[in-house]
Amino acid sequence: xxxxxxxxxxxxxxxxxxxxxxxxxxxxxxxxxxxxxxxxxxxxxxxxxxxxxxxxxxxxxxxxxxxxxxxxxxxxxxxxxxxxxxxxxxxxxxxxxxxxxxxxxxxxxxxxxxxxxxxxxxxxxxxxxxxxxxxxxxxxxxxxxxxxxxxxxxxxxxxxxxxxxxxxxxxxxxxxxxxxxxxxxxxxxxxxxxxxxxxxxxxxxxxxxxxxxxxxxxxxxxxxxxxxxxxxxxxxxxxxxxxxxxxxxxxxxxxxxxxxxxxxxxxxxxxxxxxxxxxxxxxxxxxxxxxxxxxxxxxxxxxxxxxxxxxxxxxxxxxxxxxxxxxxxxxxxxxxxxxxxxxxxxxxxxxxxxxxxxxxxxxxxxxxxxxxxxxxxxxxxxxxxxxxxxxxxxxxxxxxxxxxxxxxxxxxxxxxxxxxxxxxxxxxxxxxxxxxxxxxxxxxxxxxxxxxxxxxxxxxxxxxxxxxxxxxxxxxxxx
Length: 479
Fold this sequence. Notes:
Shape: flat
Order of helices and strands: HHHHEEEEEHHHHHHHHHHHHHEEHE
Number of strands: 8
Largest sheet: 5 strands, antiparallel
Radius of gyration: 33 Å
Protein backbone atom coordinates (compact mmCIF):
# COMPACT_ATOMS: atom_id res chain seq x y z
CA UNK A 1 0.00 0.00 0.00
CA UNK A 2 1.42 3.43 -0.93
CA UNK A 3 2.45 5.72 1.87
CA UNK A 4 -0.16 8.36 0.96
CA UNK A 5 -3.05 5.86 1.21
CA UNK A 6 -1.77 4.69 4.60
CA UNK A 7 -1.72 8.26 5.87
CA UNK A 8 -5.31 8.79 4.62
CA UNK A 9 -6.45 5.59 6.35
CA UNK A 10 -4.85 6.72 9.63
CA UNK A 11 -6.28 10.22 9.42
CA UNK A 12 -9.75 8.88 8.56
CA UNK A 13 -10.10 7.82 12.21
CA UNK A 14 -9.74 11.45 13.36
CA UNK A 15 -13.50 12.35 13.38
CA UNK A 16 -14.30 9.39 15.63
CA UNK A 17 -11.53 10.34 18.05
CA UNK A 18 -12.71 13.95 18.04
CA UNK A 19 -16.33 12.88 18.73
CA UNK A 20 -15.31 10.79 21.74
CA UNK A 21 -13.21 13.62 23.16
CA UNK A 22 -15.99 16.16 22.57
CA UNK A 23 -18.56 14.00 24.39
CA UNK A 24 -16.18 13.56 27.30
CA UNK A 25 -15.57 17.32 27.35
CA UNK A 26 -19.31 18.09 27.52
CA UNK A 27 -19.86 15.61 30.37
CA UNK A 28 -16.92 17.11 32.27
CA UNK A 29 -18.24 20.63 31.79
CA UNK A 30 -21.70 19.66 33.07
CA UNK A 31 -20.18 18.07 36.17
CA UNK A 32 -18.13 21.22 36.81
CA UNK A 33 -21.29 23.32 36.47
CA UNK A 34 -23.20 21.16 38.97
CA UNK A 35 -20.36 21.38 41.48
CA UNK A 36 -20.15 25.14 41.07
CA UNK A 37 -23.94 25.53 41.35
CA UNK A 38 -24.03 23.68 44.68
CA UNK A 39 -20.85 25.05 46.21
CA UNK A 40 -22.86 27.62 48.16
CA UNK A 41 -24.54 24.87 50.19
CA UNK A 42 -21.21 23.34 51.12
CA UNK A 43 -19.91 26.76 52.17
CA UNK A 44 -22.94 27.32 54.38
CA UNK A 45 -22.53 23.91 55.98
CA UNK A 46 -18.87 24.60 56.77
CA UNK A 47 -19.75 28.02 58.21
CA UNK A 48 -22.41 26.43 60.41
CA UNK A 49 -19.95 23.78 61.64
CA UNK A 50 -17.39 26.45 62.52
CA UNK A 51 -20.00 28.49 64.41
CA UNK A 52 -21.16 25.43 66.35
CA UNK A 53 -17.58 24.55 67.33
CA UNK A 54 -17.01 28.07 68.64
CA UNK A 55 -20.33 28.05 70.51
CA UNK A 56 -19.55 24.66 72.05
CA UNK A 57 -16.16 25.88 73.29
CA UNK A 58 -17.75 28.98 74.87
CA UNK A 59 -20.38 26.84 76.64
CA UNK A 60 -17.67 24.38 77.72
CA UNK A 61 -15.73 27.10 79.53
CA UNK A 62 -18.85 28.14 81.43
CA UNK A 63 -19.78 24.55 82.25
CA UNK A 64 -16.25 23.85 83.50
CA UNK A 65 -16.58 26.77 85.92
CA UNK A 66 -19.91 25.43 87.21
CA UNK A 67 -18.56 21.90 87.66
CA UNK A 68 -15.41 23.05 89.45
CA UNK A 69 -17.48 25.23 91.80
CA UNK A 70 -19.75 22.20 92.51
CA UNK A 71 -22.88 24.15 91.59
CA UNK A 72 -25.34 21.62 90.06
CA UNK A 73 -28.19 24.14 89.86
CA UNK A 74 -26.06 26.54 87.84
CA UNK A 75 -24.86 23.68 85.64
CA UNK A 76 -28.43 22.61 84.86
CA UNK A 77 -29.43 26.20 84.16
CA UNK A 78 -26.45 26.72 81.86
CA UNK A 79 -27.26 23.57 79.89
CA UNK A 80 -30.95 24.49 79.53
CA UNK A 81 -30.28 28.10 78.53
CA UNK A 82 -27.60 27.15 76.01
CA UNK A 83 -29.76 24.44 74.45
CA UNK A 84 -32.70 26.83 74.16
CA UNK A 85 -30.55 29.59 72.64
CA UNK A 86 -28.75 27.36 70.17
CA UNK A 87 -31.62 25.01 69.36
CA UNK A 88 -29.38 21.99 69.95
CA UNK A 89 -28.93 19.08 72.35
CA UNK A 90 -26.25 19.45 75.04
CA UNK A 91 -24.71 16.87 77.39
CA UNK A 92 -22.00 16.87 80.06
CA UNK A 93 -20.06 13.60 80.35
CA UNK A 94 -17.59 12.84 83.16
CA UNK A 95 -14.19 11.20 82.64
CA UNK A 96 -15.76 7.75 83.17
CA UNK A 97 -18.21 8.29 80.30
CA UNK A 98 -21.32 8.78 82.47
CA UNK A 99 -23.78 11.47 81.31
CA UNK A 100 -24.13 13.84 84.28
CA UNK A 101 -26.38 16.50 82.72
CA UNK A 102 -28.24 16.39 79.43
CA UNK A 103 -30.87 17.81 77.10
CA UNK A 104 -31.92 16.24 73.85
CA UNK A 105 -31.28 12.59 72.97
CA UNK A 106 -28.76 11.61 75.67
CA UNK A 107 -30.26 10.65 79.04
CA UNK A 108 -28.62 11.27 82.38
CA UNK A 109 -26.83 8.25 83.82
CA UNK A 110 -26.20 6.71 80.41
CA UNK A 111 -22.63 5.49 79.77
CA UNK A 112 -21.15 6.71 76.48
CA UNK A 113 -17.64 6.49 74.97
CA UNK A 114 -15.38 9.49 75.44
CA UNK A 115 -14.09 11.15 72.28
CA UNK A 116 -11.62 13.58 73.87
CA UNK A 117 -8.65 12.89 76.13
CA UNK A 118 -8.01 16.41 77.24
CA UNK A 119 -6.81 17.48 73.83
CA UNK A 120 -8.45 19.35 70.97
CA UNK A 121 -12.12 19.70 70.04
CA UNK A 122 -13.53 16.74 68.05
CA UNK A 123 -16.44 16.69 65.59
CA UNK A 124 -18.15 13.59 64.19
CA UNK A 125 -21.31 12.39 62.46
CA UNK A 126 -24.10 11.56 64.93
CA UNK A 127 -26.80 9.87 62.93
CA UNK A 128 -28.51 10.91 59.71
CA UNK A 129 -28.61 14.67 59.29
CA UNK A 130 -26.78 15.46 62.53
CA UNK A 131 -23.27 16.18 63.74
CA UNK A 132 -21.85 16.28 67.23
CA UNK A 133 -19.11 18.53 68.65
CA UNK A 134 -17.10 17.22 71.64
CA UNK A 135 -15.11 19.72 73.72
CA UNK A 136 -12.78 18.63 76.57
CA UNK A 137 -13.58 20.01 80.01
CA UNK A 138 -10.61 21.11 82.11
CA UNK A 139 -10.41 22.16 85.73
CA UNK A 140 -7.77 22.87 88.33
CA UNK A 141 -6.86 19.17 88.41
CA UNK A 142 -6.80 18.64 84.66
CA UNK A 143 -9.22 16.81 82.36
CA UNK A 144 -12.48 15.77 84.03
CA UNK A 145 -14.87 15.12 81.14
CA UNK A 146 -16.32 16.51 77.95
CA UNK A 147 -19.21 18.61 76.71
CA UNK A 148 -21.21 17.40 73.71
CA UNK A 149 -23.22 19.66 71.39
CA UNK A 150 -25.46 17.97 68.84
CA UNK A 151 -26.90 19.95 65.91
CA UNK A 152 -28.69 19.23 62.59
CA UNK A 153 -26.94 19.84 59.27
CA UNK A 154 -29.49 18.56 56.72
CA UNK A 155 -31.15 21.97 56.36
CA UNK A 156 -27.81 23.63 55.62
CA UNK A 157 -27.05 21.16 52.88
CA UNK A 158 -30.44 21.49 51.14
CA UNK A 159 -30.30 24.32 48.62
CA UNK A 160 -31.54 25.08 45.15
CA UNK A 161 -29.24 24.99 42.21
CA UNK A 162 -27.41 28.30 41.85
CA UNK A 163 -28.21 29.16 38.22
CA UNK A 164 -25.77 32.04 37.75
CA UNK A 165 -22.57 30.31 38.90
CA UNK A 166 -23.70 27.09 37.24
CA UNK A 167 -24.21 28.60 33.79
CA UNK A 168 -20.98 30.57 33.99
CA UNK A 169 -19.06 27.42 34.92
CA UNK A 170 -20.86 25.47 32.17
CA UNK A 171 -19.93 27.95 29.44
CA UNK A 172 -16.35 28.26 30.60
CA UNK A 173 -16.04 24.50 30.95
CA UNK A 174 -17.42 23.88 27.46
CA UNK A 175 -14.98 26.32 25.86
CA UNK A 176 -12.09 24.84 27.76
CA UNK A 177 -13.16 21.27 27.00
CA UNK A 178 -13.55 21.95 23.27
CA UNK A 179 -10.10 23.53 23.10
CA UNK A 180 -8.69 20.51 24.94
CA UNK A 181 -10.40 18.15 22.50
CA UNK A 182 -9.00 20.06 19.50
CA UNK A 183 -5.48 19.97 20.90
CA UNK A 184 -5.81 16.26 21.69
CA UNK A 185 -7.04 15.64 18.16
CA UNK A 186 -4.09 17.52 16.68
CA UNK A 187 -1.70 15.55 18.90
CA UNK A 188 -3.34 12.30 17.80
CA UNK A 189 -2.83 13.17 14.14
CA UNK A 190 0.81 14.05 14.72
CA UNK A 191 1.57 10.84 16.59
CA UNK A 192 -0.14 8.73 13.92
CA UNK A 193 1.76 10.44 11.08
CA UNK A 194 5.06 9.99 12.92
CA UNK A 195 4.31 6.30 13.51
CA UNK A 196 3.49 5.78 9.83
CA UNK A 197 6.63 7.62 8.77
CA UNK A 198 8.80 5.45 10.99
CA UNK A 199 7.09 2.24 9.84
CA UNK A 200 7.65 3.18 6.20
CA UNK A 201 11.29 4.07 6.79
CA UNK A 202 10.83 7.77 5.99
CA UNK A 203 12.86 8.82 9.05
CA UNK A 204 13.84 7.89 12.54
CA UNK A 205 11.54 8.58 15.46
CA UNK A 206 14.07 10.89 17.12
CA UNK A 207 14.11 13.16 14.09
CA UNK A 208 10.35 13.05 13.55
CA UNK A 209 9.32 13.94 17.10
CA UNK A 210 9.13 17.54 18.20
CA UNK A 211 12.22 18.53 20.24
CA UNK A 212 9.83 19.99 22.83
CA UNK A 213 8.71 16.48 23.74
CA UNK A 214 12.28 15.37 24.32
CA UNK A 215 12.98 18.39 26.53
CA UNK A 216 9.81 17.79 28.52
CA UNK A 217 10.70 14.16 29.12
CA UNK A 218 14.19 15.10 30.32
CA UNK A 219 12.79 17.78 32.64
CA UNK A 220 10.29 15.36 34.17
CA UNK A 221 13.01 12.75 34.64
CA UNK A 222 15.25 15.26 36.43
CA UNK A 223 12.35 16.45 38.61
CA UNK A 224 11.57 12.85 39.60
CA UNK A 225 15.21 12.21 40.47
CA UNK A 226 15.32 15.34 42.67
CA UNK A 227 12.10 14.34 44.42
CA UNK A 228 13.37 10.81 45.07
CA UNK A 229 16.59 12.23 46.50
CA UNK A 230 14.70 14.58 48.83
CA UNK A 231 12.42 11.78 50.05
CA UNK A 232 15.44 9.58 50.71
CA UNK A 233 17.12 12.35 52.70
CA UNK A 234 13.92 12.90 54.69
CA UNK A 235 13.76 9.19 55.50
CA UNK A 236 17.41 9.01 56.56
CA UNK A 237 17.12 12.18 58.65
CA UNK A 238 13.97 11.00 60.42
CA UNK A 239 15.51 7.63 61.28
CA UNK A 240 18.67 9.31 62.58
CA UNK A 241 16.65 11.70 64.73
CA UNK A 242 14.56 8.84 66.12
CA UNK A 243 17.67 6.82 67.03
CA UNK A 244 19.13 9.85 68.83
CA UNK A 245 15.91 10.20 70.84
CA UNK A 246 16.08 6.55 71.93
CA UNK A 247 19.77 6.95 72.76
CA UNK A 248 18.98 9.95 74.98
CA UNK A 249 16.41 7.82 76.85
CA UNK A 250 19.07 5.16 77.38
CA UNK A 251 21.56 7.72 78.71
CA UNK A 252 18.97 8.92 81.24
CA UNK A 253 18.30 5.36 82.36
CA UNK A 254 14.65 5.52 81.31
CA UNK A 255 14.90 2.50 78.97
CA UNK A 256 17.34 -0.45 79.04
CA UNK A 257 20.66 0.40 77.39
CA UNK A 258 21.15 -1.36 74.06
CA UNK A 259 17.72 -3.02 74.19
CA UNK A 260 16.66 -1.84 70.72
CA UNK A 261 19.93 -2.90 69.09
CA UNK A 262 19.77 -6.37 70.65
CA UNK A 263 16.15 -6.79 69.58
CA UNK A 264 17.12 -5.71 66.06
CA UNK A 265 19.84 -8.34 65.73
CA UNK A 266 17.63 -11.02 67.26
CA UNK A 267 14.60 -10.15 65.09
CA UNK A 268 16.57 -9.94 61.82
CA UNK A 269 18.26 -13.25 62.60
CA UNK A 270 14.89 -14.84 63.36
CA UNK A 271 13.40 -13.42 60.13
CA UNK A 272 16.22 -14.96 58.10
CA UNK A 273 15.70 -18.22 59.99
CA UNK A 274 12.08 -18.09 58.76
CA UNK A 275 13.28 -17.41 55.17
CA UNK A 276 11.34 -14.15 55.02
CA UNK A 277 11.90 -11.76 52.15
CA UNK A 278 14.66 -9.17 52.39
CA UNK A 279 12.04 -6.39 52.59
CA UNK A 280 10.70 -7.96 55.81
CA UNK A 281 14.21 -8.16 57.25
CA UNK A 282 14.84 -4.51 56.36
CA UNK A 283 11.56 -3.50 58.03
CA UNK A 284 12.64 -5.19 61.28
CA UNK A 285 16.11 -3.69 60.90
CA UNK A 286 14.58 -0.18 60.85
CA UNK A 287 11.74 -0.51 63.36
CA UNK A 288 13.17 -2.67 66.17
CA UNK A 289 15.75 -0.10 67.41
CA UNK A 290 12.87 2.40 67.70
CA UNK A 291 10.40 0.35 69.76
CA UNK A 292 10.98 2.66 72.76
CA UNK A 293 10.74 5.87 70.69
CA UNK A 294 7.32 6.86 72.01
CA UNK A 295 8.52 6.70 75.61
CA UNK A 296 10.03 10.15 75.14
CA UNK A 297 6.45 11.42 75.69
CA UNK A 298 5.83 9.24 78.77
CA UNK A 299 6.17 10.63 82.26
CA UNK A 300 9.64 9.77 83.60
CA UNK A 301 8.08 8.63 86.90
CA UNK A 302 6.18 5.93 85.02
CA UNK A 303 9.40 4.69 83.37
CA UNK A 304 11.34 4.53 86.64
CA UNK A 305 8.74 2.72 88.74
CA UNK A 306 8.70 -1.06 88.97
CA UNK A 307 5.12 -1.19 90.26
CA UNK A 308 2.44 0.97 91.82
CA UNK A 309 1.71 3.14 88.78
CA UNK A 310 -1.20 5.54 89.28
CA UNK A 311 -3.95 5.93 86.68
CA UNK A 312 -2.37 8.81 84.79
CA UNK A 313 1.05 7.17 84.70
CA UNK A 314 -0.45 3.91 83.43
CA UNK A 315 -2.43 5.74 80.74
CA UNK A 316 0.68 7.69 79.73
CA UNK A 317 2.73 4.50 79.42
CA UNK A 318 0.06 2.75 77.33
CA UNK A 319 0.20 5.60 74.82
CA UNK A 320 3.88 5.16 73.93
CA UNK A 321 3.29 2.88 70.87
CA UNK A 322 0.87 5.46 69.44
CA UNK A 323 3.26 8.35 70.07
CA UNK A 324 6.21 6.48 68.60
CA UNK A 325 4.26 5.66 65.44
CA UNK A 326 3.14 9.30 65.14
CA UNK A 327 6.74 10.53 65.26
CA UNK A 328 7.56 8.40 62.20
CA UNK A 329 4.24 8.76 60.40
CA UNK A 330 5.12 12.07 58.76
CA UNK A 331 7.40 10.32 56.24
CA UNK A 332 5.35 8.17 53.80
CA UNK A 333 8.15 5.65 53.24
CA UNK A 334 8.25 4.94 57.00
CA UNK A 335 4.52 4.20 57.29
CA UNK A 336 5.09 0.43 57.58
CA UNK A 337 7.73 0.89 60.28
CA UNK A 338 5.32 3.20 62.13
CA UNK A 339 2.63 0.51 61.93
CA UNK A 340 5.06 -2.05 63.37
CA UNK A 341 5.83 0.23 66.33
CA UNK A 342 2.14 1.04 66.93
CA UNK A 343 1.15 -2.65 67.17
CA UNK A 344 4.10 -3.84 69.32
CA UNK A 345 1.94 -4.10 72.50
CA UNK A 346 -0.99 -5.92 70.88
CA UNK A 347 -1.74 -9.44 72.17
CA UNK A 348 -2.57 -12.47 70.05
CA UNK A 349 -5.81 -12.96 72.03
CA UNK A 350 -6.90 -9.35 71.41
CA UNK A 351 -6.22 -8.10 74.94
CA UNK A 352 -3.42 -5.72 74.00
CA UNK A 353 -3.35 -2.02 73.18
CA UNK A 354 -3.81 0.51 71.65
CA UNK A 355 -6.25 -0.97 69.10
CA UNK A 356 -7.11 -4.37 70.61
CA UNK A 357 -6.53 -6.26 67.35
CA UNK A 358 -5.91 -10.00 67.52
CA UNK A 359 -4.39 -12.95 65.70
CA UNK A 360 -2.87 -12.49 62.28
CA UNK A 361 -4.46 -9.05 62.00
CA UNK A 362 -1.47 -7.90 64.05
CA UNK A 363 1.36 -7.19 61.57
CA UNK A 364 3.85 -10.05 61.45
CA UNK A 365 6.71 -7.64 62.04
CA UNK A 366 5.03 -6.49 65.27
CA UNK A 367 4.51 -10.08 66.44
CA UNK A 368 8.19 -10.86 65.83
CA UNK A 369 9.34 -7.63 67.51
CA UNK A 370 7.17 -8.27 70.59
CA UNK A 371 8.52 -11.80 70.98
CA UNK A 372 12.17 -10.75 70.61
CA UNK A 373 11.74 -7.72 72.88
CA UNK A 374 10.25 -9.75 75.74
CA UNK A 375 12.94 -12.42 75.36
CA UNK A 376 15.69 -9.79 75.53
CA UNK A 377 14.22 -8.14 78.64
CA UNK A 378 14.06 -11.50 80.39
CA UNK A 379 17.61 -12.54 79.52
CA UNK A 380 19.35 -9.23 80.27
CA UNK A 381 17.23 -8.29 83.28
CA UNK A 382 15.27 -5.11 83.88
CA UNK A 383 13.68 -3.11 86.65
CA UNK A 384 11.09 -5.88 86.89
CA UNK A 385 13.55 -8.66 87.74
CA UNK A 386 17.05 -10.14 87.44
CA UNK A 387 18.30 -11.74 84.22
CA UNK A 388 17.25 -15.32 83.41
CA UNK A 389 19.21 -18.06 81.62
CA UNK A 390 17.84 -18.51 78.14
CA UNK A 391 16.07 -21.85 78.86
CA UNK A 392 14.21 -20.25 81.78
CA UNK A 393 13.33 -17.27 79.59
CA UNK A 394 11.83 -19.57 76.96
CA UNK A 395 9.85 -21.38 79.66
CA UNK A 396 8.51 -18.08 80.92
CA UNK A 397 7.50 -16.93 77.42
CA UNK A 398 5.85 -20.30 76.77
CA UNK A 399 3.32 -19.50 79.50
CA UNK A 400 1.95 -16.74 77.24
CA UNK A 401 1.95 -18.82 74.04
CA UNK A 402 -1.36 -18.31 72.26
CA UNK A 403 -2.32 -15.42 74.54
CA UNK A 404 0.34 -12.75 74.19
CA UNK A 405 2.41 -14.41 71.44
CA UNK A 406 1.57 -16.04 68.10
CA UNK A 407 1.81 -19.79 68.88
CA UNK A 408 3.28 -20.76 65.51
CA UNK A 409 5.86 -17.98 65.63
CA UNK A 410 6.77 -18.89 69.21
CA UNK A 411 7.43 -22.53 68.26
CA UNK A 412 9.74 -21.44 65.43
CA UNK A 413 11.40 -18.86 67.72
CA UNK A 414 12.13 -21.58 70.27
CA UNK A 415 13.79 -23.66 67.54
CA UNK A 416 15.74 -20.60 66.44
CA UNK A 417 17.04 -19.87 69.95
CA UNK A 418 18.04 -23.47 70.55
CA UNK A 419 19.81 -23.76 67.19
CA UNK A 420 21.66 -20.50 67.86
CA UNK A 421 23.38 -22.23 70.83
CA UNK A 422 23.26 -19.27 73.22
CA UNK A 423 25.80 -19.28 76.03
CA UNK A 424 24.46 -20.52 79.36
CA UNK A 425 26.30 -17.87 81.35
CA UNK A 426 26.65 -14.17 80.62
CA UNK A 427 30.12 -12.87 79.91
CA UNK A 428 31.56 -10.42 82.36
CA UNK A 429 33.68 -8.67 79.74
CA UNK A 430 32.80 -4.99 79.30
CA UNK A 431 33.77 -2.25 76.92
CA UNK A 432 34.73 1.36 77.61
CA UNK A 433 32.99 3.51 75.05
CA UNK A 434 32.41 7.14 74.20
CA UNK A 435 29.68 8.22 71.77
CA UNK A 436 29.18 4.69 70.55
CA UNK A 437 32.87 4.12 69.62
CA UNK A 438 34.28 0.87 71.04
CA UNK A 439 38.07 1.04 70.80
CA UNK A 440 39.19 -1.03 73.85
CA UNK A 441 38.18 -4.27 75.50
CA UNK A 442 38.92 -5.12 79.13
CA UNK A 443 40.81 -8.41 79.30
CA UNK A 444 41.85 -10.85 82.01
CA UNK A 445 45.15 -11.79 80.32
CA UNK A 446 47.98 -10.65 82.71
CA UNK A 447 50.57 -10.08 79.97
CA UNK A 448 48.21 -7.64 78.18
CA UNK A 449 47.22 -5.51 81.19
CA UNK A 450 50.31 -3.26 81.27
CA UNK A 451 50.09 -2.37 77.57
CA UNK A 452 46.30 -1.96 77.87
CA UNK A 453 46.67 0.58 80.70
CA UNK A 454 48.99 2.72 78.60
CA UNK A 455 46.59 2.55 75.65
CA UNK A 456 43.54 3.42 77.76
CA UNK A 457 45.29 6.34 79.48
CA UNK A 458 46.27 7.89 76.15
CA UNK A 459 42.78 7.27 74.79
CA UNK A 460 41.09 8.81 77.85
CA UNK A 461 43.25 11.90 77.53
CA UNK A 462 41.94 12.43 74.01
CA UNK A 463 38.27 11.94 74.93
CA UNK A 464 36.10 15.01 75.37
CA UNK A 465 32.87 13.27 76.40
CA UNK A 466 31.70 10.98 79.19
CA UNK A 467 32.34 7.25 79.01
CA UNK A 468 29.75 4.51 78.98
CA UNK A 469 30.15 0.90 80.12
CA UNK A 470 28.21 -1.57 77.97
CA UNK A 471 28.16 -5.39 77.85
CA UNK A 472 30.67 -6.85 75.42
CA UNK A 473 29.12 -9.43 73.08
CA UNK A 474 32.38 -9.86 71.18
CA UNK A 475 30.99 -8.83 67.80
CA UNK A 476 32.79 -6.68 65.22
CA UNK A 477 35.85 -6.07 67.39
CA UNK A 478 39.40 -7.30 67.41
CA UNK A 479 40.68 -8.63 70.74
